[in-house]
C-alpha cells in the first residue's frame, strides 16, 4: 500500500497522535488490560477453546502448563499476547529482600509511524491511519502471517478460529471515528476504496481517548499530539535518569515509553532505528552492489579462463 495514501512519513510523524506510557507512575493494577478487553469485546482466556491451535496459544498466553515450557515464576498475567489479548502488563522483579522492587512494562502494539507490517501485507489488510493507529482490516486478511514475520516487536497474533490476524487498534474507533473492520470492499487492492459504516457516534469535536488511557488511575498513560508526547517523554526520562523507547525505534512509533531501566533489561526487543523504507532501500542497494560485484568477478574469471584456453591452443599449434 502506498504511504502517500495517508500523507508523507514526516506529515504523519508530525501531525499524528501518540500514547505515552510512564513506567515511573505505573502501579501494575491491570486496569488497562480490563478496559481493553471490555471495549474491544475480547474473550477471557479461561473460556473453553475448542480449536487445538487456539488452546495451545492460550496455554502459552496464560502460562499453563508453564510459559514456553517453563515453570510460572512471574505475576505477569496473561504472560503473552494472544488473539483475544491485545495488551498485557509484564511484571519484573529487581533486587532481593529490602532492595526488592517491581517494574511494570506495557506489552502491546507500538503502532509504528512507518509500519513494517503495512509494507509486508500482500492484501492491504493492514492500514496506517494518519491519526496514528495501525489497524487490521479482517475482511481483507488472508492469515498469511507476513505481518508476524515483519513486526520487529512480535505483536500480531493469528486468530485460529477466524483465520485472521488480530492486535491492538489503538482504539481507532474511539480516537478518530475510524472503522475497525469493513465489508463491501470496492476497488483494487492497489488502490482501495471503501465506505465507512461501522463507526461510533462521536463527532469530530467529541472524540475519546483510547480505553486504556481513559481508565488508568495514576495517569501513567497519557494521550496527545505526538510532538508533545515526545517532548514529555524526553523531559521525564531526563528528570528521573530513565530511558525512552519508541521515539527512534523503527523510525518512530505512536506509542512511546518512559522507562526506569534500559529496555533490554525489561525484555523489550532491540530493534533497528531506520524507517522501513530506508532499510529496504539500503538492503536493495547492498544486494544490487553484491550482484554487480558478482557479475564483475564472473566476467573476470571468464576472461581468465578464455585467455588460458587460448594460450593452450596456441601452444598446441606451435608444438605441432
TrEMBL record:
Binding residue positions for [4Fe-4S] cluster 4: 121, 141, 144, 147
PROSITE patterns in alphabetical order: 4FE4S_FER_1, 4FE4S_FER_2
Record-listed [4Fe-4S] cluster 1 binding positions: 26, 29, 32, 216
Transmembrane domains' residue ranges: 289-308
Residue numbers binding [4Fe-4S] cluster 2: 36, 168, 171, 212
Cofactor annotation comment: Binds 4 [4Fe-4S] clusters per subunit.
Location, primary (coarse class): other
Location relative to the cell: Cell envelope
PANTHER family noted in UniProt: FORMATE DEHYDROGENASE, NITRATE-INDUCIBLE, IRON-SULFUR SUBUNIT, IRON-SULFUR PROTEIN
Domain (4Fe-4S ferredoxin-type) ranges: 17-47, 132-161
Entry keyword Protease: no
Organism domain of life: Archaea
GO BP: cellular respiration; formate oxidation
The protein's name in its UniProt record: 4Fe-4S dicluster domain-containing protein
Iron-sulfur in keyword set: yes
Keywords noted in UniProt: 4Fe-4S, Iron, Iron-sulfur, Membrane, Metal-binding, Repeat, Transmembrane, Transmembrane helix
Cofactor(s) named in the record: [4Fe-4S] cluster
UniProt: [4Fe-4S] cluster 3 binding residues: 109, 112, 117, 151
Record-level Gene Ontology MF annotations: 4 iron, 4 sulfur cluster binding; metal ion binding; oxidoreductase activity
